[in-house]
Amino acid sequence: MTPIALYLNSQADRRIKKGHLWVFSNEVDVKRSPLKTLQPGDLAIIHAANGAPLGTAFINPNALICGRLLSRHSDVVINKNFFVRAIERALRLRETCFPKPFYRLIYGDSDGFPGLVVDRFGDYLVVQISVAGLDKLQNLVVEALTQVLKPKGIVLRNNHSARELEELPDQVELIGEVPPIFTLEENGVSFEVLATEGQKTGWFYDHRINRQLLMPWVKGKRVLDVFSYVGGWGVQAAVAGASSVVCVDASAAAVEKVYANAARNQVADVVSAIKGKATDVLKQLLADGEKFDVVVLDPPAFIKKRKDQRAGEAAYRHLNELAIRLLGKEGLLVSASCSMPLTNEALTEIVRGAARHHDRNAQLIWTGGQGPDHPVHPAIPETSYLKAQFYRIYAD
What we know:
The chain is globular. The model has no long low-confidence stretch (mean pLDDT 95). The strands form four sheets. The protein has a seven-stranded mixed β-sheet, sandwiched between helices. A five-stranded mixed β-sheet has the order 1-3-4-5-2. The chain is an alpha/beta fold. The longest helix has 18 residues, at 80-97. Helix content is 28%, strand content 30%. The protein has three domains: 4-71, PUA domain (Archaeosine Trna-guanine Transglycosylase, Chain: A, domain 4); 80-179, Transcription Regulator spoIIAA (2-Layer Sandwich), CATH 3.30.750.80; 182-394, Vaccinia Virus protein VP39 (Rossmann fold, 3-Layer(aba) Sandwich), CATH 3.40.50.
């Protein structure tokens, strides 16, 4: 790809100079560099209004974020070696943080790869691409990953909603020998996930540290894991000595994997699972008079866009109220959110209100976020999304 020149309006370079990596369509001087003449995935050299080069970016004239910087240099060559160097840089961070090869290897903009996510499952990789520029260079990305990591197989799971924004087709492709099930280890606990199905890339590495922090609280306790998926929280709690664990998920496949993962770790006798909509199951547990010592709420993003804010916050509050009612006189609530627009402060207020609504007291004892394999880009707030708040809930 030969980069073309794209000029910004006066003063529109300030955010880029402060470290941000995105160019919005209303920041482009369309008289000087007509944006609509470009094709999705084109490379461009971004220039300030005075002509000073700001870096090399992927362009999509049809998107609000019309430019995503790959490099601060205007003379960089975007080839396999460029991607190899970036992958090696990302790998050094993960190998410093984790002793075994189970982690998010590439986390988009934070690792200098706009629109790319790569999760590692030992000898296998799951790759997701969500921008047109990288989609065009998919073969180079795969070649670079193969050179650095020498995986036995790669799953290209390009069938997620983020691709719609860039008008990219859904597709799943297998490279090399890919087994139907991947295995991984997290906090000393072994799991299996489906290689080409299930949620996202098949596993949620982002909560690894938070799940580890829960372990000292669960020994001898009765634990409820809501939105359990394949048992990330619940099975680890069982291994840590919980007396009983109930997992709740709407997916029959996920529930099946909860049982498989419990058996895999020799805790099948203390783990059970309920298939159903979370709020319906929680209401039924209340009607049955059930009580738990620990409740974990790890729902999907209720607030994906700003327009969802009010309804999403109401959903979080309703869910937390139900969870608090299921706790005994003194219990632990883990309230998580992966909604980027929901701040830590807003989640705290939701839990505070939910507790007081039922005449309970809440003590915030820990606030966690995403692990170091999901590094936050300090100039891009959108890269910081995960919240996990631990509360002691008690009655006077």
